[in-house]
Amino acid sequence: MNQTSRFAPYLYVAPLVALLLFVFGYPLVRIFEFSFKMVRGIDGPWIGLRNYELVLNQPLFWESVRHNLLLLLAVPFMVAWSLLIAVVLYERLKGWKLYRVVLFLPYILAIPIIAVIMKKLFQFNGPVNEVLRWIGLDFLALDWIGSSDVALWTVMLLIIWRESALGIILFLARMLSLDESLMEAAKLEGANWWQRVWHVIVPQMRVVMEFYIVTSVITILSAVFAYVYMIGGGRGGPGTSTMVVELYIFNALIRTSLPGIAAAVSVMLFLVSLLLIVPLFAARRRANEEETA
Amino acid sequence: MTGKWSFSRRDVLRTSAAAGAGVALGGMLPAWRARAAAELNMWWWGEQELPGLQAFVDDSVKKYTAATVKPMLQDTAVVISQFQTAAASGEAPDIQFLWNGIYHMESVWLGYLQPLNGLVSDAVIQASNPTLLSNFGGNTYRVGWYPLPMIWVYNKDAFDKAGLDGDKAPQTWDEFLAACEKLKSAGIAPVGGGIQDGYWGEWYFGHALAQNVDSAGETIGLFTGERDFREPKYHEHWVKLEELRKAGFFNSEMLSTELYPGIDLIVAGKVGMGLSVGSRVPADSKASNGRVGTMVMPVYGKGKLAGQPIFDSQGLGIAAKAKDPKGAAAFLEYLQSPDRLKAVHESTGWIPANKNFDVSVLTDATVKDMWQRWGLSPNIPYLSNLVPGQFYEQALLPTAQQVVEGKITGEQAGELAYNVAKEWRDFNPDIVENYKKWAVDLGG
After folding, report:
1. Which of A42, A239, A258 sits opposite B401 (nearest CB)?
2. Domain assignment present for B439
């Protein structure tokens, strides 16, 4: 390989790398820089680790983290629900293509639209509770969005409902690409529905499930802002019961004029997300290697 | 190549002519500059809460001949940050919309706004009702634009139904509790509205803390650490809230209802009394056939501010590095002219903040009475506008929700507020000093 051909690939990708560095790299560097400054307006004095110290000693920050971690409980439900529905659709029930569209609909709709409707439905004297009271289930007529004991679970319900739509489509797409002869063989061997799902389908779904789990975890750690913003009255309420890390960052940046604090939390969130992306890439590499072998 | 860059005699003459023209144009530069300076940028907000304001701005800009004004309606979320970022990079507009109190005072402390005294005539500033919270270091930084009387409302039909006098709102806390009992007996939720989005807690704080303080400056001491929310008189307002909850006086859907739909419940007579804002009164009075009355929060406290009408206003100011401060000031004065004051009313159905507004155009007796009591009579500033952002988010809104829900007591709310105020001082040591200076302007 001569000198020119050795550098040629790098030259081809250089414009894109430069663009990426400008779009993502520069802001990232600035965020890291801001996290060590007491920013007022657009800059401020260097204060070392003080922002991190303040954040890590603040109960509200840890409460936000705890809420994010609680929301992670949604992930197993999302996986199980998506898998179940995908398997049912895979059975090609009559009208399964229509069901597929209907089930994917929540994912296409903007979160604020869904949340506004859900908020109306789940008001204390709203339609859901009216129906529950009408059928004699008064004990279930909770203050879904007004009680600090319940609001986070309402948010979780909304997340499961919407985010599962992606899981259903991903899983179904993978199932439709499976070798059907394996299923036929299992049937001929006398495997029942459950055995076919557990021993034939699920093992072949491992990669897509790993992908969905990791992306869902990342979503819940760093992309649930719209859900809590809408359901929690824009404030993470009632009280601070639906406050999550993203809303904490938003408040610090926009509402409390503390860009340095917002930057410090952003850096921590970025690093945690990065840690989660590593296993995702590892899983994909492993899958590729398995396929190649 | 060389031919391209060679000069003929004709070229030299042409160049000389061009240079001459340049010199001549240079001589005209001051005039050109004057014309360029007669272009003003105005970033504003308000259409979001006062529909029709856009029409007023467009009309005002169109009719103003002394300068070309370029208005830009800002998004709610970025009103402050957009201005501060622009100001920091020397690109601020000449005229900027300013919320009251701390919402513009931070920009003052950052040096992004300039005092209006000396630029805008004192008579105009005073008449525009900018309120005390626009003052810092003896200077005033805003002119008032449109008013926000902070009020309580009650439904007269609900009062009648409960055997109360619909034309007489309760004035003392005892009268208020008695009215609540009667409303409750009549099957009407006595008091409340909607607190799901938290703003009800802000309004309540503004009304109720005032009952136990003697000045706006005293309130600032609660944040700077010179006073303490744990002292009973500084959290009594949350204790009162707790008492109302325990008595079962709040409407059942209060926690899951937002602020404005909550006020709708009062207008509809489903809730007897609650918090509102003056700009809603024209529409609410019309919707209820004049059966919504306005009132000051019933008095329980012993502070000098107790029982007085609370007046707030939205305003406009001039950026420190405005390209043409005098031109900007002239436009602000133009917006306060009798013709423009009338135009505000015509475009929005609401009234301008200016005390010289001709009230004879008001046809609704409730609106007229409210403006007389809140806008033209002695009033006090809205104390919630003094609250630092961090305290607002982490104490002011959550505490009221938690007390109404029964999660914490009024006393615990005071403890929480104290802790958050302390946290705020740790996070913002530089701003604490400015707050202390501000307290001097506010009689602290």
Report:
1. A239
2. no
